[in-house]
Design a protein that fits this description.
Shape of chain B: elongated
Radius of gyration of chain A: 13 Å
Strand order of the largest sheet of chain A: 1-8-6-3
Strand content of chain A: 35-45%
Number of strands of chain B: 22
Oligomer: heterodimer
Number of strands of chain A: 8
Largest interface: A-B, 17 and 20 residues
Largest sheet of chain A: 4 strands, antiparallel
Distance between the termini of chain A: 18 Å
Low-confidence stretches of chain A: none
Structural class of chain A: mainly beta
Radius of gyration of chain B: 27 Å
Order of helices and strands of chain A: EEEEEEEEH
Number of helices of chain B: 22
Strand order of the largest sheet of chain B: 11-10-12-13-15-14-20
Number of helices of chain A: 1
Shape of chain A: elongated
Amino acid sequence: MHVVVLPKTGIYAGDVVLVEWLVSEGSQVSVGDPIFVIESEKVEMEIEADVDGWLHREADPGLEASIGTRIGAISATEAEYRRIAGLR
Amino acid sequence: MSSREILESGLKMMTRIRVFEDRVVREFAKGEMPGFVHTYHGAEPVAAGVCAHLSAADMITSTHRGHGHCIAKGCDFLPMVAELYGRETGLCKGRGGSMHIADFTRGILGANAIVGGGISLAVGGALAAHVLGDGRVAVSFFGDGAANQGVFHEALNLAAIWRLPVVFVCENNGWAESTPASYSTSVTDIAVRARSYGIPGVVIDGSDYVDVYEKAGQAIEMARSGAGPTLLEAKITRMRGHFVGDPEQYRSREQRRTARAADPLDRLRSEVDIGGYEQEVTAELDAAYESALCAPWPDPAQVERYVLSEPPAGPSPPSDPPTTPRQGSYLLAVHEAIAGAMRLDPAVVVIGEDIAGGAGLGEPLEGAMGGTFGVTRGLIEEFGPDRVRDTPISEAGFVGAGIGAALAGLRPVIDVMWASFVPYCFDQIFNQAAKMRYMFGGQTDVPVVLRMAVGAGLRAGSQHSDTLYPILAHIPGFKVVAPATPADAKGLLARAIVEDSPVVVLEHMSLYRTAGPLPEEYYELPIGAARVAVPGEDVTLIAFGAGVSLAAEAAETLRSDHGTSAEVIDLRTLSPLDVDTLTASVGRTGRAVVIDESPPRCSMASEIAAVVTETAFGRLRAPVARVTSACSPVPFSPPLEDAHMPTVERVVSSVVAM
């Protein structure tokens, strides 16, 4: 399981905003797929998946929080995703 | 090694690098890693294939994207990770960070965040290897962006004319930050630029470990055998952005996907099996992170530690030169200091433009010139062309090479000729020599001396007359001396050469032909100790270099015409300032005038005025006065130049006005 965080994207180290999710809960994502948008220093930026797997979203758009805050997880298998998402 | 073993060890090294960099990407996103980082994704075969041919004693210079070079040269994970987090246990004790990692025990002369900054340093490393004859080679890694820097061209030319054991490895990933090479670079293959310098230029498929391994092996073997330098250009794909978190607006999503998928490890993965090596490396890295994140931060009280080297061993020399009946010129003094130091230590070399003069012509004309001012005349006959090395007019190249040689076992005395030429080599002085000891956490000293002629009054015009006193004294990491007399010029330069810190020696042109007592023997004078040139009671005239005789003349006029007793302090050293001597004198006299041939704004005079105001404020009976040059470039026309410079009259009137 790969933790998805509000990422540090350069030298700026202040709070960032989760603007929107670009994929729906439970979708299968691949490395390089844009999965959410953040706003940092008034600039919006698409963040891509670092790993392949099933995405579980754990935070809502509008969240403003410090870099490193967990907002989701990508599971390598669907079974793991279902466990993390609390399905079954 | 069998070819299978070569492939296996290559894939293992590339895997080490990849595992490290993947983890950097993940950990950086979490926000605890300070600053910003650049990863080596896509270039792994280059570092692995080149460094496979290097021993720990061989030298490399690296770039802002240098983790791969460090790992391939044998760095352990733990001190690297600790450095990325700025911890005291890091390779550079947290003073350097990702872009300035160095490990001198493994010949890593530092990663460089200045594009092209390492190229001339590597030439210097190779120069040291050549002069010392120890069989080492130097490899400079740099990107395609660096191939458009002037210092790249200067360095290649230097290495070519001197046939040095250096290999230039251009990692061409097609991007200088966000600017494509197709736009920024006049040629498709940077390797063809080698032709301009008469050395081999070889294009390598940087995604193919075998191609890198073979061609780098040939180039390194050539360098080691004395056949001279090679430019290798490894074509690679920058799999990720310029820095971690780079949104890469300059590449389309499709281009980004293609880049991410262009994994150079895939080829070897299909050919050899390294079993569970990736898991092993991951476990090793897990342990490194666990330990590094618990490691102590540097102590904030130590913020100025490692700026300068320890003073030379033994007691500090007496602050006065030996007494002597002998008279000699300032020029002779400088010459004798260099010759004396060269006789004492075979690591001392002299490099600069025209310092022999006519190099390559052979006897008897070779060396007849001995530098623009004749200071180094006769040295090539005594010490030979390896230790007295004429250079092309390539300030960035040869100053960088001198600094690199200082990292690799020599003690170069670099003749920059005129201080006005410093801007051409300011990166080498400011970003390299001055910062290295600090950035690298005290791992290395930089025992280099930069001599240069300063000052106006010779009708030499704006670009041969600067002093640069405050500009050079401003820089942490240097010592700066400005001797006023022949005896001081000899003793301070001799000391500068044995200092392990870089030292700038500023010689005022108007002093070269002056004479004074000049002891025959070799001796050193302490750096950082001012002297009372003329004792007095009523006012302190603070001067250095050519300003000292001007101050002494003003003191005489003040005594004879105004009945004022002026004390003249000859600073001798501009950095570090002898604050105690200044404070004691100004504390006694209550008045101070600072004489400085620099323009007034942010001058040495400003600094010294601030210092004595802080340390002797309670004793001051008048504001500290500054007598500087005009706030203009140095003019050519004699009446203008005379008006530009400090004069005895201005010093006298500033005292009378107090």
